[in-house]
């Protein structure tokens, strides 16, 4: 039997992927929230899950350390997608990539006046492309998390971050001024694995495809 390794992150991606895996007849034997194991076996002897940081999923799949993975579009855009086949939008872990500013900051007029904006974000590629398309000059400041803090302490004028309920922005006196794009997670497949392990991978792909909610 062909061995299959699937990379995913714990938290919302694992939670939303579990029903899709179940539809493919794959059930994890440990709960990644409860267990410290990074390799989870499943009810299928030839299928295992590896639990990695969300932003590391494409790297594991690119190098073939995992055959399949589940990653957000946000993460895939930053990674670039080299060596990855991206056949399915799973429509899970949905949110929106937004520009947000502190309450009281007039973003529209700053843009109109051609001000140079300082933008804090984890998503440099996406932010760079967005502001270049708009013709807005920006200085990008790379952060690894808690972007919402940056404008509050004078590190940046605005942030580019993911928003789902909007409560994190609200709690930090920020509001969204622009949607960059809707985000959801995709199934990614190592291109070589897809050729060499097609017989084992295709049924998983089909089951995922049939189980996707719109
Ligand atoms: O947490 P860690 O640093 O390990 O990595 P991560 O934040 O990239 O991973 P994780 O598991 O939090 O997110 C995995 C994927 O879920 C992301 O790559 C997105 O594709 C997707 N996703 C969906 C989200 C959100 N919704 C989301 N709301 N990822 C992050 N958030 C954060 C957002 O950055 C902000 O800080 O939640 C906060 C806003 O939430 P609301 O509900 O207050 O608007
Ligand atoms: Mg997170």
TrEMBL record:
Database matches in InterPro entries: ATP_PRibTrfase_cat, ATP_PRibTrfase_CS, ATP_PRibTrfase_HisG, ATP_PRibTrfase_HisG_short
Keywords, alphabetical: Amino-acid biosynthesis, ATP-binding, Cytoplasm, Glycosyltransferase, Histidine biosynthesis, Nucleotide-binding, Transferase
SUPFAM superfamilies tied to this protein: Periplasmic binding protein-like II
Record-linked Gene3D superfamilies: Periplasmic binding protein-like II
Record pathway: Amino-acid biosynthesis; L-histidine biosynthesis; L-histidine from 5-phospho-alpha-D-ribose 1-diphosphate: step 1/9
Domain of life: Bacteria
Catalytic activity, EC: 2.4.2.17
Localization annotation: Cytoplasm
Enzyme kind, highest EC tier: transferase
All residue ranges annotated as the ATP phosphoribosyltransferase catalytic domain in the record: 53-208
Pfam families for the chain: HisG (PF01634)
MF-aspect GO terms: ATP binding; ATP phosphoribosyltransferase activity
A GO biological-process term: L-histidine biosynthetic process
Gene Ontology CC terms, in alphabetical order: cytoplasm
Catalytic activity: 1-(5-phospho-beta-D-ribosyl)-ATP + diphosphate = 5-phospho-alpha-D-ribose 1-diphosphate + ATP
Similarity comment: family membership: Belongs to the ATP phosphoribosyltransferase family. Short subfamily.
Role played: Catalyzes the condensation of ATP and 5-phosphoribose 1-diphosphate to form N'-(5'-phosphoribosyl)-ATP (PR-ATP). Has a crucial role in the pathway because the rate of histidine biosynthesis seems to be controlled primarily by regulation of HisG enzymatic activity.
Subunit architecture: Heteromultimer composed of HisG and HisZ subunits.
Domain notes from UniProt: Lacks the C-terminal regulatory region which is replaced by HisZ.
Protein name as annotated: ATP phosphoribosyltransferase
Organism from which the protein derives: Nitrosomonas aestuarii
